[in-house]
Amino acid sequence: MKDGLLGQIATTFASVSLVAVGGANAVMPEIHRQVVDQLHWMDGATFANLFAVAQAAPGPNVLFVSLIGWHMAGFAGLAVATLAIMLPSGLVAFAAGRLVARLDGHPLMQAAKSGLVPIAVGLILASGLVMSRAADHDVLTIAITLGTAAFVFFRENSPLWALAGGALLGIGTYLLGLFS
Amino acid sequence: MTNEETPSPPPAAASVGRAQLFLGFLKIGLMGFGGVAAVARHVIVIDRAWLSEKDYASLLGIGQVLPGPNVVNVSIMIGDRFRGPLGSICALAGLMSMPLVILIALAALYQQFSAVPEVQAGIAGTAAAAAGLVVGTALKMARKLKPTRMALLFGFIAFTAVGIIHLPMLPTVLVAAPISILAVLWERKRQ
User: Which residues are the signal sequence here (chain B) (predicted)?
Assistant: First the structure.
């Protein structure tokens, strides 16, 4: 029974892996469709809870998938889910990296890299906006977002300071009874 | 795209060892709250100076076009560039190991602590800061890359399509990336 479940975890996330262009957040709806609607591994509320936990932890957002594996089958599930979501796309990235390195210097590859740069930066800005829409719901959180953005824009200090500052401001204002 | 007069300083490729790859990406994983793209740039470009701003941006662009998490793809490509397949494994292991441990701990504690208001307030503040981190990083990269008008246009298009109009990422990239690359070719031909 458990082997069957592990196999199912492996095939489910390996198939998601190869279509996961844009990373974990982009395929979140697809994972939801499979895990909640089709396989009935958990209900929507559990799914949202696991997602919140994954967001609270540091690291790539893809860890959300590891957490689903852990929820389903403990450590074995975690290992299988993590490998399944990362291995197929990782092998593609490895091959692509080699190809890019080999073709480096070719005018077409130079143009391809130059053409991808603005898209990459535009997409980072877009995900920043999407994140701030989810996180900013009052004056304090909006101010924290703007303040961190300015800090990162003007300084080369470690971004960890800005994160710690945000956490402390959140706790501090709560304890002082502001913005409740 | 950057102006071509400032070639990216060749990173001291030989001097990036497996342990350094592991530790560098360990730091990225540990600091990457709310996603790792912003912190990854700080560590790779500023802190460790493994890649130039442009090399990092183009590698990230490739990572975004490929399936899989962007920074995971970047870690695999950077690891291989410096130390071959083992380098990829070191970079990836560094990136994932601590977050996985923390995640398990968090999941175990979540039920108890999610209701504590101080914890909620701290998480809310961190989430807001993480969003600002990503916004600031994108703006800073845009400034440092000294984009041409064409590049600014395509950056704006990608941002608007995904960030404002909420078009799905895959079709957006599949349409915008080739046009952007063609525009670069066209621009170079004119010069």
Answer: none
Return all residues near B154 (Cβ < 8 A) that are at least 6 apart: A115, A118, A119, A122, B176, B179, B180, B183
CA-nearest of A112, A152, A165 to B138 is: A152
Question: In this structure, what DSSP letter does residue B68 have?
Answer: S
* CA–CA dist A134, A129 (Å, integer): 9
In 3-state terms, what secondary structure has residue A58? strand
Task: Record the tokens describing residue B156, joined without a space.
Answer: 């704006």
- Number of structural domains (chain A) is 1
| Residue A57 covered by a domain | yes
Contacts of B46 in chain A (CB under 8 A): 156
The predicted model scores a pTM of 0.78
> Distance from B156 to chain A by nearest Cα, in Å?
6
Per-residue model confidence as pLDDT tens for chain A (180 residues): 456 899 999 999 998 888 776 666 667 777 888 888 889 998 887 787 777 777 777 888 788 899 899 989 988 999 999 999 999 999 999 999 999 888 888 888 888 888 888 988 888 888 888 778 878 888 999 999 999 999 989 988 877 788 889 889 989 998 888 755
Given an 8 Å threshold on Cβ–Cβ distance, is A94 in contact with B76?
Answer: yes
Instruction: Give the range of the structural domain holding residue A56, as residue numbers without chain letter.
Output: 1-103
Chains A, B: CB pairs < 8 Å:
393
Is A8 among the domain residues?
yes
